[in-house]
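Renewal narrative, Specific Aim 1. Our central claim is that a sequence can be written position by position from structural information alone. The example that follows is taken directly from our test logs and has not been curated for this report. It begins with the structure tokens describing the chain, in the order in which they were read.
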């Protein structure tokens, strides 16, 4: 996994954060977040006791706890044996341990552009 030069922020066990969270570097969720988490260059780690209710968007995401909402890991997502995702999981690369649960769709993120749109019939081709 990539090392991050920024500082790591922590939502401690027993703490609850309400609202959207945007950051640089890394964030570790040991408590509860009620809101979306976004970073363009960072790592989100949800520990075994951590819970997020909202959308999570980051290049690198490590899940050992629970996320209720869609997850967008543009580069890499790692699901530990106690990971629970209730929502769709969009990923560049995925590692999934035995025991991890995803209640939603698994959707790989395409690297380049949109998927090719084909005509429905030969008559549509000009």
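The sequence written for that structure reads:
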């Amino acid at each position: 996994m990539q090392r991050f030069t920024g500082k790591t922020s922590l939502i401690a066990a027993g703490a609850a954060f309400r609202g959207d969270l945007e950051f640089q570097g890394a964030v570790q969720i040991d408590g509860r977040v009620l809101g979306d988490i976004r970073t363009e260059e960072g790592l989100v780690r949800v520990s075994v006791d951590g819970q997020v209710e909202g959308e999570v968007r980051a290049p690198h995401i490590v899940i050992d706890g629970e996320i209720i909402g869609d997850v967008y890991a543009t580069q890499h997502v790692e699901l530990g044996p106690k990971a629970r995702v209730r929502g769709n999981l969009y990923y560049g690369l995925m590692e999934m341990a035995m025991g991890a649960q995803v209640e939603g769709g698994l959707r790989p993120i395409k690297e380049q552009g949109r998927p090719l749109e084909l005509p429905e019939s030969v008559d549509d081709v000009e």
